Amino acid sequence: MAEHEHVRVAVIGSGFGGLGAAVRLRREGITDFVVLERAGSVGGTWRDNSYPGCACDVPSHLYSFSFAPNPDWPRTFSGQRHIRAYLEHVTDLFGLRPHIRFDSEVKLMTWDEDNLWWTIETTRGTLRADVVVSATGPLSDPKVPEIPGLDSFPGKVFHSARWDHDYDLRGKRVAMVGTGASAIQIVPAIQPQAGRLTLFQRTPPWVMPRMDRAISGAERWLHRRLPVTAQARRGLLWGIRELQVQAFTKRPDELGLVEQLAKRNMARAIKDPALRAKLTPDYRIGCKRILLSSEYYPALARPNVDVVASGLAEIRGSTLVAADGTEAEVDAIVFGTGFHVTDMPIAERVARADGTTLAETWKNGMRALRGASAAGFPNFMTVIGPNTGLGNSSMILMIESQLNYLADYLRQLDVLGGRTALDARPAAVDAWNERVQERMKRTVWNTGGCTSWYLDPSGRNTTIWPGTTTEFRRATRRVDLAEYEVIRKPAPVASRKSEALA
């Protein structure tokens, strides 16, 4: 990276959000941009999460870009390897590699209010950009809880998103901490290898069967020869999920029937009443993300698995102690404890001209206009920002909506001309967030009786979008300049005098 390189747009991250932004820039005719990636390859969370059993819980044909359909998905729910390969394919298909700066972690970016650009310090040098698009994603930085005694544990410790493939689990006593989307895939994958597997469960999840199957050669042939069939398949998957949204957002009581189906799913595999009681949630289904697995419960019923219905509280040497006093001797600890979602680390590295960081601005909760623009941070946009997450559908749909907003944002800057910046008005940000939070009040995520990673420390849901993907697409179709302050760089004094004389 050349020192003081200047580009029109800098994109941070090369997962679905970052690559999608890069493709959209190319399609808008913008080639003066870079993608800053801290790792040595593209893929984002699908590069970092390579744990055994890693797969997506959204159907393959819906978990892909509309502008880059893949007729050759091998399964209805794709595994990590195939999703990562798809992102590599998208990178090459749209000629993105010349724009990507690998091993270029952003250390700090500061707004220059005199020149109306961002100065970005990375591990490979400094550059400037008129517009910054942060696409680091909420599932990029693992969260490991502060457990007393963890530093002195003599065995192996790693997070699910930083899997140590060199460590052999065969015959080992393994502790799995957490019962989220990663854990329910890891447990059945490692259970046959482990000598003993102890699951520390703070809160049991609701688990539905994962109706996964191989996609036949005939289906793939048909999707290649008649792309409209793949489009129809995607449309059907999307439509079903759009219809489900009402139950999550307006009528949570209707989810009771789904709970009964989930309990029957558990009863088929878990015959022990005591274990079944441990695994039965006490909150409304959907309050936390509904997990999909057909192997999780059968694995928990195996004789070499123990379920501790309490969170990990302390570590004494090789002994793990749960909050209820249960102890387990282990050789390795795997944390499936999620990510920094409501406190995204990138926010600590984004600073206004006066040094105030985005993290400081968001200390009482993340908030951004239409999930993209934070007040006080001109020409800075977030993909998968506050309140853009989904509880039942594909995030790719939300990403593409935000890319529409990004494209119009850049068009508005072009129309305004000169060196110009747009800064979201605080009143507009407040109005947007008040509407979102008002709608959030009756959703299952706020009323379901659980504590989830959707909520920030104050209990405010800053993660989920309380509506359909169609509503969000409408809300992000165009940039409303009335919601922004237009900042222009004054013309040089000599130029102004010349204009006055003319």
At CATH level 3, the topology of the largest domain is FAD/NAD(P)-binding domain
Under CATH at level 1, the class of the largest domain stands as: Alpha Beta
- Beta strand count: 20
What kind of sheet is the major sheet? 8 strands, mixed
The total of helices stands at: 15
Question: Considering the protein shown, what is the CATH homologous superfamily of the largest domain?
Answer: FAD/NAD(P)-binding domain
The coarse silhouette is globular
Distance between the termini: 43 Å
Class inferred from helices and paired strands = alpha/beta
InterPro entries: FAD-bind_Monooxygenase_sf, FAD/NAD-bd_sf, Flavin_mOase-like
Keywords: FAD, Flavoprotein, Oxidoreductase
Family: Belongs to the FAD-binding monooxygenase family.
Protein name: NAD(P)/FAD-dependent oxidoreductase
What does this 3D model show about the protein?
With 502 residues, the chain is of the alpha/beta class. The protein folds into 2 domains: 5-141 and 340-493, 3-Layer(bba) Sandwich (FAD/NAD(P)-binding domain), CATH 3.50.50; 150-211 and 236-335, 3-Layer(bba) Sandwich (FAD/NAD(P)-binding domain). 31% of the residues lie in helices and 18% in strands. The chain is built from 15 helices and 20 strands. Strand 13 (312-316) and strand 14 form a beta hairpin. Helix 1 packs across helix 11 (395-416), helix 5 packs across helix 6 (227-249) and helix 11 (395-416) packs parallel to helix 14 (469-475). The relative contact order is 0.14.
